[in-house]
Each structure stands twice: as structure tokens, then as C-alpha cells.
Amino acid sequence: KQGAFSESLNVASLWKLPIVYVMENNSYNVVTRVEQEDANAAAGDPLAIKAQAFSMPGVTVDGGDPVAVYEQVVPAVERARSGSGPTLVESLVYRLSAHGNIIAPPGVPLHFPEHEAIEVFGNPEEYEAAKRGDPVPRFRGRLVTDGVLTAEEADRIAEQAREEMQAAVEFGLNSPFPEPDAALNHVYA
Prior knowledge:
The protein has a domain at 1-95. The longest helix is centred in the C-terminal third of the chain and has 24 residues, at 151-174. It is built from 7 helices and 5 strands. Strand 4 (58-62), helix 3 (66-81) and strand 5 form a beta-alpha-beta unit. The strands form 2 sheets. A 3-stranded parallel beta sheet has the order 1-5-4, covered by helices on one side. The protein is 42% helix and 11% strand. The chain has helices at 3-14, 39-42, 66-81, 116-119, 124-132, 135-145, 151-174, and strands spanning 20-25, 28-29, 32-33, 58-62, 87-92. It is α/β, with parallel strands linked by helices and 189 residues long.
């Protein structure tokens, strides 16, 4: 729907720019389903079909499967590096939280709105199915099944990640606010 997206696909293909576009398709645009706002999706086509209009390859991949993503992105990167031009990769994912989560200061209770699949469209089954397809436990299971990790190693990694996140949260909450004149540090646009 954005002119800049179509325009950039056109110029990238015309000039054979070394770009791999990764489109995250989480099925929703704020609170409307993609089929309500996109003609390709409404026709049952993947959004990657848009690449055809610009004479570039377009692929659709399960964004919750790191191996599948790798298998689609590697050829796209090779194509870009070889001077053959851009590729559009549509990554099918599911936004497991509502669009408008609220960030509240410490001490203020958080209200997490229901996911749009439930609150707007009354479809809790869709949301529950998506939770069962959560990529983290899926990939953990694959690594354990394939013998890359033991269940104990996977548990240890998960615990270490939780501890690192908790330490980062505590660091952030206990850090002083930055000076106002630092607001534009590292801002380049």
C-alpha cells in the first residue's frame, strides 16, 4: 500500500541493486486482516507475488522456521552479491501480542489488550493455533530431536537467556535518565 515500497522494488530491479527485501507478514495491519487491505491476499495469493510486477524473484517462507528462512535467504543473498539484482522474501509469522501493547512506568499496572484475532475478529482458535506454532519451542524441539542439543542443554540456554534479560531490565530500571542533549545521539535520519 505504500508508494515507497513499490517504488523501491522498481528501482532496485531496474538497477539490479544488491538488496534482499524481507517482508514480515503477520496477517494483520494494526487491527485489520491483510485480506481486507491487499488485493493479492484477498485473491488468496502470497504477498511475494508482488515481486513479479518488478521482474524479480519472490518467495514465501515460514518465518517461524529458522532453517526454512536460511534456505530461502541464502540464494537471495547469493543473487544480490552476484549482481543479479534483488529478491523479495515474504516471511509468514504471527504477531503473538496485540498491536497496541502499552509500556507503563514501574509501579503502574500493565493492561495487555486482547490480540486482534480475539478482540476484533472473535477467533480465539486462530490465536491458540499460532501460540502452538511459536518458533522458539518449535526450534528447540527440532534441535533436541536432531541431537544438536540435549533437553538439559536447551533448558540451561533458556535459563541463561532469562537471567540475561532480567539483568538487562534491572540495569535499565536502575540507570539514570540520559541527558536531554543526548536524545539525538546515533540518529542519522
